[in-house]
Amino acid sequence: MAIEPAQEFLVQPVDASWLQCNIECQEACPVGTNCRGYLNLAAEGRFEEGYILSRDPNPVAAMCSYVCSAPCERACRRGDIDRPLAIRAMKRFLVEWHEASGIPDVMPQITPRAERVAIVGAGPAGLAVARELAMKGYQCTVFDSLPYGGGTMLIGVPAFRLPREAIEMDVRLIERLGVTFVYDTTIGKDITFDELQRDFDAIAITAGAMDAVALDVPGADLDGVDYGVDFMKRANLGQPIEVGNDVVVIGGGYTAMDCSRTSLRHGAANVTIAYRRTRSELVVDEEELGETEREGVRMEFLASPIEVLGEDGKVSGVRFIRNRLGEPDASGRRSPVPIEGSEFTVAAQTVIPAVSQAADLTFLPVEATFEINRGRVKVDPATYATNVRGAFACGDFVTGPTTLIEAAGHGKKAAYAIDRYLAGRTDVTVAANVKVTSSWRHDMPEFYDVLPRQHIPMVPLQARMPSTDPIVNFNTPVELGYDANGAVAESTRCLMCNYNIWFDPFRCVLCGACADVCPEGVIHMVDINTLKSEGLLPELDEAYGWDNGGAMILDEERCIRCALCVKRCPFDAITMERFELQEISTDGRLYKESYRDAQLAGTPGVAGGAR
Fold first, then answer.
1. Fewer CB in 10 Å around end: N or C, the chain?
2. Is the preceding omega at residue 470 within 30 degrees of 0, hence cis?
């Protein structure tokens, strides 16, 4: 009987927990971007299709391509082999390739609705809410006190890391969906909150957290203490900044790194970042930290400020005390414990505290009686609703300072909740749909297993600050990004974790040929009676007690999907199973997407589709 080389079937619904190893990178992304899918497309040179797949679930894809914290890279299984894929840099290549190509973005067909939604704040969370609701047809108006969109990305992230063009790209696409942006408008001053409640059917508060948390040490009020959020806001808006020869930045997050590098571009000669924990507890990625150190910033770990020193009312230095790490705190990181008698001083004319930020609640009307907890508006975690009817809140305004991608993910979920509220739905169920393709044919790209992580090209150190004009230095980019060859090489390294090896116990004769041919040594044939567990393994229940029983054990974490075992098996007992997971809710939202090759091929205007 002839055997077909591939067969497809659908399982609906299914408990997807057993597919976890296939979707770790996708699950790590707060907006649900399928990095594996667009990497696979990029490896084939299908850059526009890769751009569409990376852009579709992400309302701030252009900004993410430059400054995303890339939680997907920490979940990438290639990191268990050598180094994870440069997923963020690959997204940047696709965004820049699309922009240079001149191919227009295809706008969806939207059925207008009568309901109006006001969004307070044009940062990542606000942009996410606006895009998702606009796609549903709601009339959205975004209010922001700044002259442009972007929120924290505009005034908190330096232009040498995030070009203003990337912010404009994301905002422009959302505008094309019919969203109205009202800038230079402060809620509570130019427009009252009561007016928003009167004129709109729902309000989404996404005002961020851009109020600096005060440095609680003696001398914090001296001339020369400049809080990080205010410092970066002036730098990004082109306002005058003066720093001394010696600058001390207190903190260990992205704001601290940005403040230190911005200080260098404004003339500082010696910049020190003081962080109370160790290098391993830093929340910034290694590349950001590496570039900060390469530019000459000195890191002082396990140091907490105890006093800002001054002369004649001006800062002259900072007195620190050394720490040791104690027990983990609520964040899971070990708490710093001061070491008595370990004080030391660092000279400084400028001190920039960049420890944390808080939300500004002053625009909220007292009579609305918002429920507040620890300086933040309380929301229902399931619906993002506040205790004020029709008012929702999300992003850093609710969670406190997070990353760009986390704020955008929060905004997307809040938009779904607002949609349910306006449509009168009270509950939503999500069914997992898994498409499984079984095949005896599977070929990985040539050299995929030996290609090293491609270096992300950077501007040479001497060219990063080419002028005596701080504005020129501040706007000179540092990262150059991949060219097409580098992008294809890097995306070729993907292990295609949506493919798993599957053993057919009715065909397998335990010959061991698969174990012999495996280049990584991840397949083992063992005696069934040597397997230990807290109880009988359900999959092997019938086999226990066999005198000569055996089992094939596969380590999925280290498998590189080379498929040599599939090709070597003399009885076709091993297949490659491609899993594509989609979680579709009853409100029509596609919460997780996978490699939509077949759908893209049939999309008008896309390679392979009708025109």
1. N
2. no
- Tokens 């203003």 correspond to what residue? 164
Q: Are 435 and 10 spatial neighbours (Cβ–Cβ below 8 Å)?
A: yes
Q: How far apart are CA 384 and CA 394, in angstroms?
A: 7
Taking the CA of residue 216 as centre, how many other CA atoms within 13 Å lie in the half-sphere pointing to its CB? 2
Structure tokens at 409: 């993910």
The whole-angstrom separation of Cα 57 and Cα 173 is: 13
Chain centroid offset of residue 199 CA = 34
CA atoms within 13 A on the CB side of 218: 6
Q: Is 39 exposed, middle or buried (0-12, 13-18, 19+ CB in 10 A)?
A: buried
Is residue 204 within 8 A of residue 393, CB to CB? The reply is yes
Q: What is the amino acid identity at position 367?
A: E
Tokens found for residue 54: 């990376």
Q: What pTM was computed for the model?
A: 0.86
Q: What sign does the CA torsion over 152, 155, 156, 160 have?
A: positive
- Block means of pLDDT (10 residues each) for the chain, length 611 residues? 31 34 70 80 91 90 94 88 93 96 90 96 97 96 96 95 96 96 95 94 95 92 95 94 95 94 96 94 87 95 96 95 88 86 96 92 80 88 91 94 93 93 75 68 85 94 92 94 96 87 84 91 80 59 61 82 90 82 56 38 33 27
* Chain position carrying tokens 């497309």: 41
CB 482 within 8 A of CB 91: no
